[in-house]
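Hi R.,

Here's the chain you asked about this morning:
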Amino acid sequence: MMSATYNNQVLLNFSEETESNQPLEYALRLTTSLISVESSWISSNVSHRGAVGLMQITQPALDDYNQKNKTQLTLSNMFDVKLNVKVGMWYFWERLVPHYNGDVKLALHSYNMGMGNLKKGKSNAIYVQRIMERKQNIK
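And here is the predicted structure, written out as tokens:
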């Protein structure tokens, strides 16, 4: 379930820029596409860089979540599907999207590369394109 922060601060900021006037629907379709690209829906997936689970949670993202939410989750907790999606959605929708002033594509680039790496000039446009294309195909 999405918190009021998702609905009020983040989703409404970019709802005018989406093809849908329903920001919650947009967010769920985008998150579904993000999971599909990140892990192919394999909850036991671990990347070569140590990202874990459906949303490929990294240690820096988890540290950020733990600090903000006063929790002590570990990467081993990220094999729990519900926790993984909760942390991943929080990181994307409450941390990255607001950081990039509602620019979802920049937030996706940052999710893929790691926060702070976007400034280094590297970008993965194919990653973002794949997510956006899959989002269009979700009914």
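One quick note: Confidence is low (pLDDT under 50) at residues 1-21.

Cheers,
M.
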